[in-house]
Amino acid sequence: MRRKHVMEMIAGYTFMMPFIVSISVFLLGPLIFAFIISFKNFSFLNPEAATWVGFKNYVQLFRDPVFRRALLNTALYSSIVTPVQLAIALILAVILDQKIKGRTFFRLAYYIPTVTSPVAVAVIFLYLFKADGLVNTILAKFGIQGPVWFNSVRFALPSIMMMAIWSSVGTYMVVFLAGLQDIPAELYEAAEVDGASGIQRFFYITLPVLRPVVFFNLIISLIGTFQVFDQAYVVSRGEGGPLNATMTVVLFIYRQGFREFNMGYASAAAFVLFIIILILTLIQRKIFREETS
């Protein structure tokens, strides 16, 4: 019996081995290595010349005006994009959960942008928002002089926000739809018998039941917005301009690691970003737990 138990364990670990090896080689190994070199002056062009600098990279980060601007841009981007896209996604999900004509078409239409390449979306928006693009042409019909959106310090980041909301709202809509379809119809029927209006049913039934789904979408959206890179890279051609108006933390990490070849400094910035996302996630988890308890 004991031998059979040992053989079952060996068989189990054998089946798990490909996963364990892949995680160790492609995730845990690089993660540990990146953490170590974040305390070094390290470049892949000359790794032998790496020197230990302790917390110097981390201290320098918060003295670096470009990193501070990237952190501010990313925080502003996340604080606007996350609530707006979740609100729109929830409204669309509630509408498309009703028995309306053509709802399958609309579900597909809203979801298609999410499976489109972010680079392709960015290129499309570059044409839409250029000086003589479609957006400015429409504004001109109403006598409004449109800006050069992506070349403007004031409008470059908001333009990327609009792009991100349009291209990702479908993902969260689908998750909300799945949550809505799990709500028992009896709850709505009982509320309707009691004379509850549609708005009351939404706030007293739909939102409370959807709380775990809202939390899930909120965390996924928060992580995604703090990791924004593709759109900012394409729009600014990897420069984060104009005047660092579209510089994000991940774009900053990319530039430091693969353009300046200062991989130790880039690794330190990556771990600062990780800590920020972790803290925000834990705070939101605590808030949601307190509200549901």
Automatic annotation (TrEMBL):
The keyword Flavoprotein does not apply. One of its GO terms (biological process) is transmembrane transport. SUPFAM superfamilies: MetI-like (SSF161098). One of its GO terms (cellular component) is plasma membrane. Its main location: membrane. It is found in: Cell membrane. The chain crosses the membrane at residues 12-37, 75-96, 108-129, 155-178, 209-229, 263-283. It is a multi-pass membrane protein. Keywords: Cell membrane, Membrane, Transmembrane, Transmembrane helix, Transport. Residues 71-284 form the ABC transmembrane type-1 domain. It holds the Pfam family BPD_transp_1. Belongs to the binding-protein-dependent transport system permease family. This is Carbohydrate ABC transporter membrane protein 1 (CUT1 family). The lineage of its organism: Bacteria, Bacillati, Bacillota, Clostridia, Thermosediminibacterales.
